[in-house]
Amino acid sequence: MKEKSKIKKGSFLSPFKAIKFLFKKPKTLRYPFELKEPAQRYRGLHLNDWAQCTGCGNCADICPNEAITMVEMPEIKPKPEEGIKNERPKIDYGRCCFCGLCVDICPPGCLRLSRDYLHIHFDISTFNLLAKDEKTDKEHFLPADKYSILKASLTHRKIDYEGFSPDLKYSLFEPERVPMPIIEPEERKKSFVEMALGYEEEGARKEASRCLECKLCEEACPAHLKISDYIKAIAEGRYEDSLRKIFEDNPIPSICGRICLKHCEDACSIRYRGEPLAVRWLKRFVADKAVDYRKVLMPEILPDTDKEVAVIGAGPSGLAVAYFLKLKGHNVTVYDALPGGGGMLRRGPPLYRLPFESIDKDVNYIKSLGVEFKFNTEVGEDIQFEQIYNDSDAVYIGIGMCKGRYIKLENEKLAPQAVDFLKEAKFGEKVKVGKDVIIIGGGNVAMDVARTCVRLQLMQYPEQKTSVNIVCLESWDIIPATEEEYTEAQEEGVLFNVSWGPKNILLENGKIKGLECKAVKSVFDEQGRFAPTFYEEKEMFLEGDMLIEAIGQGADFSFLPKELLEKLEFTERRKVKVDEDGQTSIPRVFAGGDIVNLNLDAVTAIADAKIAAEGIDKYIRKQQS
Amino acid sequence: MRELELYFGPQHLGMVGNFSITLKVEGDRILEATANPGWLHRGFEKLMEYRTWIQNFPMVCRINVIEPDSMEMVYAMAVEKLANIEVPERANYIRSIVLELSRVSSHLFGLWAYSNMLGFDTAAQWAMYHRDLVLDLLEELTGGRVYHIYIWPGGVRRDFPEGLKDKIVKTLHSIGSCMPDYDAVFFNNRLFYERAKGIGKITQEEAKKLGAVGQVLRATGIKYDVRKIEPYASYDKVDFEVPVREDGDAYSRIWIVRDEIIQSVHMIFKLLDKMPQGEVYNRVPNPFKWNIPKGETYVKVESSRGELGLYLVSNGGDKPYRVHFRTPSYTHGLIILEKVLKNASIADVGNTMISLYIIAPEIDR
What we know:
A: FAD/NAD(P)-binding domain, 4 domains, 20 helices, 21 strands
């Protein structure tokens, strides 16, 4: 009782102090006439820009409440080669907790949260909503004058009302790639030593751990490698598992790990706001890591069927077909004119990009399985096609495109073909290079030639002024060479003359003096077909003592006997016509690779080979039974 | 007189939160009280074993509705310790600021509950209004009003937006300027004194023995505050007092709450002044491939109700192997409450309970 007296009884007037509050502005908001504006970063209902959304499904994977389902949208056309699926996220607002993890994981940054937070409806099914934004859905996103808070719902929204937005600084994925150690341009152009040094273990694991496992790449890959699985194995340090996974679909990882055109990386969802995952370099890392494939893979070969399959061409498709058929128990013999395996990849890509050891590693493994290789054997010269055809149960043609095309200019015979030049440079005794080289063509082969020339010039004319000029019809935005290739070529000092076409080869005393060029108006016609037009009056003269043509290659079917060649059907695009099993119009003859597909690259050749291998196996087993 | 069993909660008007106490009463006097939790059990600790490290982060805050940030903080700290992640300096300051803001909002909410319980509706409405102002600040910083989902492993989720610093100072000044009004209406009010003095009293020895923390412990004269004893975030960079009282009753506890609001406000001003420039987030590994090395850890923070601990075990996988929270309300609500309600009057049950700062979702989890 004593303590109580500490606090005085207040004056009886003190309650009247409260009167002052009567004259203050009330603090409560009179909703809905007075609205509370949510903060700039408010995490409300979702927004999704469908034009940017790839349907990768990372938002659905990260959602802690499984509130997001990916729904197939028939009206959207999927583009697997660009990494675009026709699925879009649908959000169940009965489950959503508005944490915004979906925003921070979204690789293109198209999924955002708006500041809208109201949805009132008597029908529960309306709480499921396909997220859209004002660009995708003009009907339900309204400007301020048409918007009423009384109707606010998932289908009555304000425009320009974005709240919690993606920020690359705080994204849950790593946008930056682990850089591949590459020899500096000044150093690398002095020799043909492989320029990309390959990842170290730590770098590879770090790079592999960037993968979001959305598998867009697997759909983009022509051979549908299980990329997500083998990358995951690398991230977890299970390199041997990773290699086994790769070999399920691709028996030449050491080659593909270096020169693959990496369609996967063009589909990688991280590429929108960062650098795509270095899938190719990771494949190379795993392939290089395994000293002996056989020990790692321990392949199971099915019992011998005693059937003979002949493969013409030891390029990627030939190697792959031989590998898959050998595993199925067939006897395979591969014929190739070159002294080793690899086909176009042995004669084409310069050694700084693909060394012989890497090719031989893959080839030797396939050899060790029991595939017979007959190198230095040109079909049609050293052995006749009829003989092969009669001795085998099936024949696979994977000869590739090794014959250079001509522009049809005067004095053209003085200019070597790119493919021949590259082959000479790799196998020949000593190929002579000019001091000032002009290369016609803008593809990867042209880049290979140009960069080979740079290296040869430094060896043959040390400390003298030399030049390498590329002339191509296409402008920078449609140049067929990959960005990697032309930037590296520029770094090494190759000069580019884009949007110029060859007009005339000028001679002096029977030797090349230079090339007259004309400016290009357009490369393709309205239908998108190759039909260049020129400004005839706009001219340029390039001086040079050597000219190389790199405008593409064609296939050489001269080894086929005339009556068979007549039977061989072609498509409109001058490709060999094959059915769904890879069989051509000639019975027992299958085909794949560059002569069949339009992509003209190694991994597509492997994809063809997979189909043909299945087809050949099916064919042979049908004959047996 | 006849002995009766009285169910106090969860529907009882005097009960705040989803909690229940079974009282054995004789007339107005309580013979025995049995805390009866379980009305709010959501199984968070088990749910967390099925979600990846990052998916758990929007989850932990939901354990405590009143003050979610300390939950986020303790989870982030545990993960950072297990995975060995450094936090940028600026992020530590921002974390401290958020934690103090949320302590203020939590205390204001507590003040609402308590004064409302005693019938001081005016003070209760003010407290609720001022809490809303603090929530506005948190909304501007984090994008959420109640669940901020902001302090995550590696730092914080976004940097301070422009102008927020001034806004915080302005808002806190305006709340601080109302403190005399609160004092006049509530804290220095004789009715509060008479209703709270000697209620729910425990001695220092009992408090220690029963595992009391926070205001309950500090009201018995022990200066125990995790922010001082094991400083985390940026609490070692600022100077602050830990308010202490001697009597161990409801009156002391509520006064400590008041003093802590003032301490926190001062601390926020100091933290804002000292806050360095720089990054606020060190990127954690890709959530789909994030495995944390095998190990276990116990971390603790000072939440608005006392020491909040988290025991986290990883077996090297992408999800926690075991999660266990040590929440302050657990001992306060189950053990101390039962003890102090003995011989109390029915009218003081709510009074005692709220003065012990019992948050039912923390007990059940």
